[in-house]
């Protein structure tokens, strides 16, 4: 049979009247202690989990920092190597430039010689033609002129070959210089790119 709320309340009041106050206080303390112990245990577990997470994060950060230090050290070493290569390359280019200037001077000298020999050849040809119109007594001299003319032509031919060879050497040196200049440009771009990446890594590390 169901009881009314009034009857239930009355029974509870009656039951409370028969409870020992000391026993009730003890029960409340135990209940409160158990509740506090449970809450403290949960908080401790959460705290331990947080500590583990922080330690993991710290290890990751230390690993990242070590990696960045190694990367920075490698970049510094590469920069020193590139600097040495650049200095060596500049010295090579300077030497090649001096050689190129010497080759240009030689080519100009050869061209001057060729022009001079052409002028001599023209004069000898004129003398040769004049000799043909002279008397028979000049035929011996004419033969000498022919021989001299042939020698001059041979010299001109050889000088032309030397000029062609010198021109090829100049072109080869110019090609090497262009290649070295391209390599310098590529190395400079690579150093700039690595520097930007290092700065970005340092910025990310400082933000973390």
Question: Top keywords for this entry?
Answer:
single chain, 208 residues, mainly alpha, 3 helices, coiled coil
Task: Characterize this entry briefly.
It contains three helices and no strands. The protein is an all-alpha fold and 208 residues long.
Task: Write up this protein.
Keywords: Coiled coil. Residues 37-64, 142-169 form a coiled coil. The protein has one domain (5-207). It is built from 3 helices and no strands. It has helices spanning 5-17, 21-133, 139-207. Helix 2 (21-133) packs antiparallel against helix 3. The radius of gyration is 52 Å and the shape is rod-shaped.
Rg, Å, rounded: 52 Å
What is the makeup of the main sheet? none
**Annotation, overall tally of beta strands:** 0
Strand content: under 5%
Number of helices: 3
Number of domains: 1
Point out poorly predicted stretches. 1-17
| Overall average residue pLDDT | 75
Alpha carbon gap, first and last residue: 70 Å
User: What is the succession of H and E elements?
Assistant: HHH
* Computed structural class: mainly alpha
List the helices and strands and how they pair.
Elements: H1 5-17, H2 21-133, H3 139-207
Keywords: Coiled coil
Coiled coil: 37-64, 142-169
